[in-house]
Amino acid sequence: MRIYATTKDRLIRDDFEMKDILSKYVQLVLESQVPVSLNLDNRPILLSYVETLLGPTVVGFVDQETSLELVQVYLNNILLQSHTYPSFMIELASSVEKWKGKIVAGLLSAQEDAIRLNCRTKLGTIASQIINIGSKDLYIFPAEHIYIHTDAKLAMSDSSSKALDAIRKAFVVDRYADFKGLCSYRNLQDAELCVKLDEEDVSLIHARVVSQDLKEFAERTGLALDEAYKVERSLEEKYWLFFNIGIECYLYAIGLKNRQGKVQE
User: Fold this and answer.
1) Under 8 Å between Cβ of 173 and 185
2) Residue 114 and residue 98: Cα distance in Å, rounded?
3) Where are the beta strands (DSSP E) in 15-170?
4) Dihedral of CA 152/157/162/165: which sign?
5) pLDDT digits (tens, 9 = 90+) for 74-121
6) How far is CA 43 from the centre of its chain?
């Protein structure tokens, strides 16, 4: 299904590649909640007002091909499957060279720079790219089978076709696992874990962890569905953990056992 979708502040989809033209009508549709029919490139595009998980939204689609209700369900499903990433991870992902197939991200740290530089010399022969991020190095590997000396720490993602998600998983391992040598995202459940949650987030995280879905979370907290969605995404961005992934929900549960302390930097 091809759609154009935007809120007042955020472009969600632009499958028609006509945002410059369609954006001129967004405010009108939002304020009047009256559909606007356009004929662009011989296509009858209808701009309509809908309520989505992001709140008031304008959607554009080819009139007579589908119904507004179906577009609304489709868009909400897209939003449920999307996640919010910290800006620094997005910036790092944009620096990763294009690679055919899957990649593995590794975040390496060591107590001494000499050890980290020695690892860089050895790992550089098998890494497709190395990005320095201050006291740590981000490695991009074509495979998961890596050996690292126990004097350093290498937090590894699993194989992924998306650089951004691979980077996030490597940072999750680095932040929450206590280990020496190498620890992979796929082996997180077997690692010694330390998860600290800010006290003001505990009740919200608990309500989300014990809820089967976003709707139940909204009901438990008394939030409107769009507000519950924003809260969920804000927590995910803060802790780098997604509620719909089992191992990461498990990490939230570990954090709930310790209601004191602040988020690790």
Assistant:
1) yes
2) 30
3) 36-40, 43-52, 55-62, 104-110, 129-133, 136-141, 152-156
4) negative
5) 999 999 988 999 999 999 999 999 888 899 999 999 989 899 999 999
6) 34
